[in-house]
Amino acid sequence: MSLARPRPSRVDAMRNRRLIVEVARGMLAESGAVSMNTVAKLAGVGPATVYRHFPTREALILAVYRHDVQRLLDAVDDEIGGHEPLDAFRVWFRRLAAYVRLKRGLGEALHTAAMQDAIDETYAPITAAVGRLLDACVAAGSMRPGLDPADVLVLMSGLWQVGTGEPGTDQGDRLLELAIRGLHA
């Protein structure tokens, strides 16, 4: 009879990883100060499990960033499928702006070479997502053809420069509508 604990199944390991990322994501939304031990406690796993998946705090922050960007990318098709193209454009850019404003609060946690590499690697997929939104709008006749997705992304960056709360949301919506008027067919 063996007293050794059975190794967790791959499914358990993947579930733990997802849970750790979600817990860390919630903590990072509130503050850039994330303790690996607190993440473990809130996720209901041991610190060794957290460190097995993410050997450093930076590795955990990078995983949260990549996870969030993938969620944004995945949302493009959902938005296009669930809304008129111009409304999908609005909804997705509001989501992107909220995400960037949230990450801006992490300050120093995002200013590392590895993080800059992650930002650089996600630029092309984000720009491609903007291109898909633009293509849908052009096909619907709500935006003019020939718009460069990278230019539109820079134009829309004003959305994540607004303040917080209702005044910031209102200003962001006004800026969004101003930009859309400039992109119309």
UniProtKB/TrEMBL annotation:
InterPro entries: Homeodomain-like_sf, HTH-type_TetR-like_transc_reg, HTH_TetR, Tet_transcr_reg_TetR-rel_C_sf, TetR_SbtR-like_C. Keywords: DNA-binding, Transcription, Transcription regulation. Residues 14-72 form the HTH tetR-type domain. This is TetR/AcrR family transcriptional regulator. PROSITE patterns: HTH_TETR_2 (PS50977). Residues 35-54 bind DNA.
